Amino acid sequence: MLPYFFLPLLFLSFVAVFSSRSDMTQGPVTLSRVLRISLLLLLVLVAVSLMAVLIGSAKIGMLSALRELLFGWREGSTVLAPEERTIIFSIRIPRVIFAGIVGASLSLAGVVFQALLRNPLADPYILGVSGGAAVGAVIGILVGAGAVPFGISGLAFAVSILTIVLVFGVARTRGEMPSNTLLLAGVIVNSFFTAVIMFLISTSGLTELRSVMFWLMGDLSLAEGSEIMLTGLFLAAGFVVCFRYAKGLNLIVTGEETALQLGVDVEKTRKQLLVAASLVTAVAVSVSGTIGFVGLIIPHMMRMLLGSDHRLLLPASMLFGGAFLVAADTVARTVAAPSELPVGVITALCGAPYFIHLLRRKTL
Q: Which of 32, 124, 252, 364 is least surrounded, with the fewest CB atoms within 10 Å of its CB?
């Protein structure tokens, strides 16, 4: 029952953001406004992360765990047993940080792809990056690459990079990459990799099947310091690149001809953003698996609340996406305790009804 104490906090946090909508959506986007809203969403992320650390299948008192987090660094102030401290500091905290980084990465990439392709259904996996990473990961699982550091995630990342190169190469026409051609190339490559994955699954044994299925639906249970640091570095670099081109992205969304007339190098901006978003996605998918709907619904949610200016939309989506995935992962690891669900199950259960509501709201 513990996860149900967690969900109201996320709901109230979202209501707090929604209740400030009139202040958020009115007026020009200024630095102070971006900082104010980003700080509010950062507080939401911190609150959700704190609750996620305190909640788990292991029976650890929430007040004792909170006291340990706040005062455990003092000598003689430890109130938890050694095994309980290990659970808090070596398992839960790294996993919460990992989930926040992955959720932020997928949301950031989702914003960029939806804007560049001008397609509301675009998500971070639309160019086939997830399919390539999945093939690499499945091969790694079947050959036992998990015994080697970065074995599975390394193979997944390598194949996803090859996928990016392949899709960009197929879509390139006379030195340019038209959006429609790029989109079609991604869909075709993703379909091919899906067939390869089905072949590999059908020929694998039952021992590896559960690991494969968990990875394909998102698995954050293997969070390690090196993977957290790598994913965080790529996220930070990707955000810097994307935010640098935020103004140009605003103009591209209104129309490429308008952007060109206003001095935006559309082709250069598109290439830089596509590469940055694809790399951020490739790293996130290679270490966490395929987690659906995060990069699809979070940009839409923030766009409805905050408007479509990417100087505000990029940081807001990144922060709230991190909070959303932390919440989803907490429910995934506790709702069926001591068993654990793939986090992609929870994101799909949350994301699909919301997206149906969004579609009906747009069409009715």
A: 364
Per-residue pLDDT of 78-134, as tens digits, reads 777 778 888 888 888 999 999 999 999 999 999 999 998 888 878 888 888 888 888
* Inter-residue contact 264 to 244 (CB < 8 Å): no
pLDDT for residue 169 is more than 50: yes
- The Cα 344–Cα 352 span in angstroms is 11
Q: How far apart are CA 86 and CA 89, in angstroms?
A: 5
DSSP letters for 173-214: BTTB--HHHHHHHHHHHHHHHHHHHHHHHHTS-HHHHHHHHH
Residue 258 burial (CB count, 10 A) = 13
Which residues sit opposite 173 in a β-bridge?
176
Q: What is the CATH number of the domain that holds 169?
A: 1.10.3470.10
Is 60 within a domain? no
Interval 13-34: pLDDT, tens: 554 455 445 455 555 778 888 9
Q: What are phi and psi of 173, to 5 degrees?
A: -135, 115
Quick check: 310 pLDDT over 90?
A: yes
Amino acid at 341: L
273 domain-assigned? yes
Plot region of 292 (φ>0 → left; ψ -120 to 50 → alpha; else → beta): beta
Question: How many helices (H) and strands (E) are present in the chain, helices listed first?
Answer: 17, 0
pTM comes to 0.88
Range of the domain at 205: 3-13+29-52+85-363
The predicted pLDDT at position 101 comes to: 96
